[in-house]
Amino acid sequence: MLSCLQVEELEEKLLDQSQEVERLRSELGATDLEKQLELLVVENQRLKQELKSCRSSDAAADSCSRCPHSQDAESLRREVSRWESQARQRERRLAELERELLEKSSRAESLRRQLDDATRQLEESRRRHGEAEQKLSLRLQQCEDELARQAAAPARVKYVSQPVEVEVESADSQRALAELQAKNGGLQEQLSVQRQLLRELETQLHESQRTCAQLRTQLLSDRGRLCSLLSNTVGKGNSEVVRRLSKILVYEGEMERAQGQLEVEMQNLEEEKNRVIEEAFIRAESEMKAVHENLAGVRMNLLSLQPALRTLTCDYNSLKRQVQDFPFMLDKAITEAKQEICQVISDVSSTNQELLRKYKREMNLRKKCHNELVRLKGNIRVFCRVRPVSQEEQDSAADAKTMLSFDSDDDAILYLANKGKMMTFELDKVFPPQATQQEVFQEVQSLVTSCIDGFNVCIFAYGQTGSGKTYTMEGVPDNPGINQRALRLLFSEVTEKAPDWDYKISVSMVEIYNETLRNLLGENPSDKLDIKMNPDGSGQLYVPGLTEFTVQSPEDINRVFELGHMNRATACTNLNEHSSRSHALLIITVSGFNSATGNRTQGKLNLVDLAGSERIGKSGAEGSRLREAQCINKSLSALGDVINALRGKHSHVPFRNSRLTYLLQDSLNGDSKTLMMVQVSPLPGNMSESVCSLKFAQRVRSVELSASSSSSRRQENSSTSSSPTHDSVEVTGILQINIHIINTRSNGDAK
Ligand SMILES: Nc1ncnc2c1ncn2[C@@H]1O[C@H](COP(=O)(O)OP(=O)(O)OP(=O)(O)O)[C@@H](O)[C@H]1O
Description:
Elements: H1 2-27, H2 30-64, H3 70-152, H4 162-234, H5 239-377, E1 380-386, H6 391-396, E2 404-406, E3 413-418, E4 421-426, E5 429-431, H7 437-450, E6 456-462, H8 469-473, E7 475-476, E8 479-480, H9 482-497, E9 501-513, E10 516-519, E11 528-529, E12 532-533, E13 541-542, E14 549-551, H10 554-570, H11 575-580, E15 582-594, E16 600-609, H12 623-647, H13 659-663, H14 665-668, E17 673-680, H15 687-709, E18 727-730, E19 736-739
Parallel strand pairs: 1-5, 1-17, 6-16, 6-17
Antiparallel strand pairs: 2-3, 3-4, 7-8, 9-10, 9-14, 9-15, 10-11, 12-13, 15-16, 18-19
The structure holds adenosine-5'-triphosphate.
Residues 387-388, 390, 463, 465-471, 576, 579-580, 612, 679 line the site of adenosine-5'-triphosphate.
GO molecular function, one term: microtubule binding
Function: Minus-end microtubule-dependent motor protein. Involved in apically targeted transport. Required for zonula adherens maintenance.
Subcellular location: Cell junction, Adherens junction; Cytoplasm, Cytoskeleton, Microtubule organizing center, Centrosome; Cytoplasmic vesicle membrane
């Protein structure tokens, strides 16, 4: 009996271990499961061994015991051995089922791996599809941009061969698409094969489970029957058997419960597996759907791109043709343009020649006209400038009220109230006190520029001391007079005429004091200079040792004036007094050469600030003052005589009578032009000197008028006033000028 119970126990253990195997299989991974299985197999072997030894000991016990139910025992033993054989069969069957289960689980594992592979491939294809889509959309954008750019850009820009690139990339996209489609098809096929395989495996698993369940049910029913048989056989008195049977029943109950749990777990696992497969399937389907949609989108895009591609190809071909033709067209256009340019150049050149010819003709004509005009007008004009009353004079003198007034309608008339009488003076131009340096220069600048054309010009400032001669000629530093303005104007004029004309402007500064000539730009201004006949036989005069500065920039002009002033100041003790008693001459020589025509010109501009013209001699001056007065008188008288002789076309012109006229001989002769600027003080105290200066100017004009009114210009004798066309002009008490000039009344250009 004990052996039977042991057998039962061992069977139970075996069953438990089988269940444990099942449970572990489901719970653990493949490797762990295998290990556990191995351990269980070893344990199983051990138990079998134990069973075997029990049986042998049982047999031994049977042979020596004297059991009263030996027949029953025998039959039971047989029954046990039958059950044992059945148990062994079931064990074998169980082992087979385990093997099958193992195979199925490995099959399921490989299917899972395949599913993972398929999922990975799907991911990969999705990624590649995304890339292809991105690329395609990029290309589409480029195509659109290119279309827009080509539509907007000018024809020349369209020569870029972009459409070829578009075509190549579209083929790539199509190829990628085809590959994707093929891959998708392959994946779908694989998926369906896997599904089929899974279904088959599931069927097999179900069948195995069903068989297993049947076997277990059968085992249980056999056991039940065995138990009832045992209880009937042994009887109620055998409590040990009952206990063991009840234990067997408990075990069986536990086995059933474990079996139920196993089934539930298997069911759960099955459901989980189905759910995972379903999810993977749904995911794969949705991805497939997305891939299909993308494919459809790509196809649509391709379809919409095709017309654009066709247009681009057409454009490209036409542009290609244009590009091919372009070099020929360009060559042709260049040749035509060259011919046109040559034609235009030759036209311009001939026009230039014609213009140059006309210009020369006009220049000659202009010079002729100018000479004629000068001949008609006379080449001396008389201007008058009234200086303003200074603030000091206004403050100090009670009778600072001016006695001079002007005609608002006629700028050549000056009125002077003297001793209750109103005197009227008519000149070429009268500058009121408010006239600016610029306005004065405006009136004389045509005379200044005529020396560029080769004329000799003399501008004299005449008047009593303090009447404004130096102000008009030199000016003040911030408001320069005629000297500086003339030099700057000449400089800018000759600069404008370059490069046709090459001009040289040279400057000398001279002072004549007591009939002595001083070189104001020389190193030693106190040295006396002499005037000599040029030894070259030209009959021209020259001053040996006279310094000539060539001015090349406005800065040079400033330097020249600074040096002249400095030398004049160092040569005397009182500059103001000295300047009143001496004549200051600025001699500007302008020499020009035209390289195109070969013409040469030379003109001289003499700007003279004369010594004061007041009647000092009458007041009985002595010594050096008397000599100064005599010298001034002599030179001013000589100037008047020379002008008179020149206007009267006298055979003899007394240039040598003074250093001033001798020095200016070249510039007073021939076609030269002269302007006498008579300076007048407005103060009542200077009125008698002002009257003298104005009478001088007036009479000069009267003499001119009477000369020009006669139909023929007569040669006049400068030494007598008996002729009605002669006017003996008493300028000062000392100075007697006999002058005959042609009347000029013009505010405009002397030319
Ligand atoms: N148009 C004018 N506007 C303003 N100030 C003037 C003008 N004319 C002369 N003056 C001023 O009057 C004063 C005398 O002028 P300036 O020295 O030029 O006379 P001048 O005739 O040259 O005398 P001198 O014979 O002694 O050289 C100077 O202070 C000068 O600045």
